[in-house]
Amino acid sequence: MTAAETRPDPESVGAAATPQRQGREEVVFHLDGLSVHYGEFPAVKGVGLDVRRNEITALIGPSGCGKSTVLRSLNRMNDLIEIAKVSGLVEYHGVDLYGPAVDPVEVRRQIGMVFQKPNPFPKSIYDNVAFGPRIAKTDDDLDGLVEQSLRRAVLWDEVRDKLDQSAYALSGGQQQRLCIARAIATSPDVLLMDEPCSALDPIATLRIEELMVELKSDYSIVIVTHNMQQAARVSDRTAFFTVDESVTGHRTGILVEFDQTGKIFTNPSNPKTEDYITGRFG
Fold first, then answer.
1. 189: Cβ–Cβ under 8 A, 6 or more apart, which residues?
2. What does the alpha-carbon distance between residue 221 and residue 52 come to, in Å, rounded to a whole number?
3. Per CATH, domain 13-277 is 3.40.50.300
4. What's the pLDDT tens digit per position in 162-221?
5. Residue 46 DSSP symbol
6. What is the pTM of this model?
7. Measured in whole angstroms, how far is the alpha carbon of residue 238 from the centre of its chain?
């Protein structure tokens, strides 16, 4: 069963549902005035944008502009940082993601994440993919689910005869696709990807990019990338962030522009976006 066939029940994250537009324009995440502080210092402030269903949304900008901080706000990973404080509105299918009744563990099940460097568990290939479903006790046909997830990650044909071997025996690109298979094995609604190709060679990067484009038919994907060409190749919409440096030297990320990717890269509205895209700064 695909994620598209298993729309999340907002009550499963602890709040009442709000009617949503159906189809491609359905808003999955609505951000309004999102700010994140680490202690007293604002890491990112005033972010407002919508992430739409079955699209790839890219977050781009120079180092330290808050891209990953915003990404982690979408599945409450910032909760795991003791000094982090999130304010503003983050709605997920109309539900306030930071409402008091929301279960962060259920949030992270429905909103999967793939990290910058491949991080397979020290287990077999099979057990990596089966780990989440076993914890959640969500599927009796575990063999079928493992195969389906590996097929969705375009890895099955390469590993079908060595499922009992260590995941560490795979190449870097294969490990990253295994991590994607592990993420989708729990039937999430959204995939968050934080620089998923930064540690990979060009051939492995191309495989991951092709995979992302295939997966968006079933998932909504948000990707952080420093690679502007990658954002231009795979994303439907792009958010450009930059750094606002205070008189004290503290750097705070701000959203400069958010639009369809073609417009961002060919006819941006803000001169700062054009300067970054053309390499004048950043």
1. 3, 6, 7, 8, 28, 93, 110, 111, 219, 220
2. 9
3. yes
4. 999 999 999 999 999 999 999 999 989 999 999 999 888 999 999 999 999 999 999 999
5. E
6. 0.87
7. 13
The strands making up 190-194's β-sheet, listed across from edge to edge, are 95-96, 84-92, 27-38, 41-52, 251-260, 237-245, 56-60, 220-224, 190-194, 111-114
CA angle 64, 69, 70 (to 5 degrees): 115
- Count Cα atoms within 13 angstroms, Cβ side, for 105: 3
Res. 125: pLDDT tops 60: yes
Torsion on CA atoms 135, 141, 146, 147, rounded to nearest 10: -170
Q: How far apart are CA 175 and CA 120, in angstroms?
A: 7
> 3-state class of 182 per DSSP?
helix
Instruction: For 82-111, write each residue's pLDDT tens digit.
Output: 999 999 999 999 999 999 999 998 898 899
> Measured at the alpha carbon of residue 194, what is the angle toward residues 223 and 149, in degrees to the nearest 5?
80
Residues 6+ apart with CB under 8 A from 260: 236, 237, 238
SS3 content of the chain, % helix, strand, coil (to 5): 35, 25, 35
Residues 230 and 206: their CA atoms lie apart, in Å, by 9
Q: Is 223 exposed, middle or buried (0-12, 13-18, 19+ CB in 10 A)?
A: buried
- Beta strands per DSSP E along the chain: 27-38, 41-52, 56-60, 84-92, 95-96, 111-114, 190-194, 220-224, 237-245, 251-260
What would you measure as the largest C-alpha separation in the chain, in angstroms? 59
Q: Do 161 and 137 contact (CB within 8 A), yes or no?
A: no
Q: Give CA–CA dist 61/76, Å, rounded.
A: 22
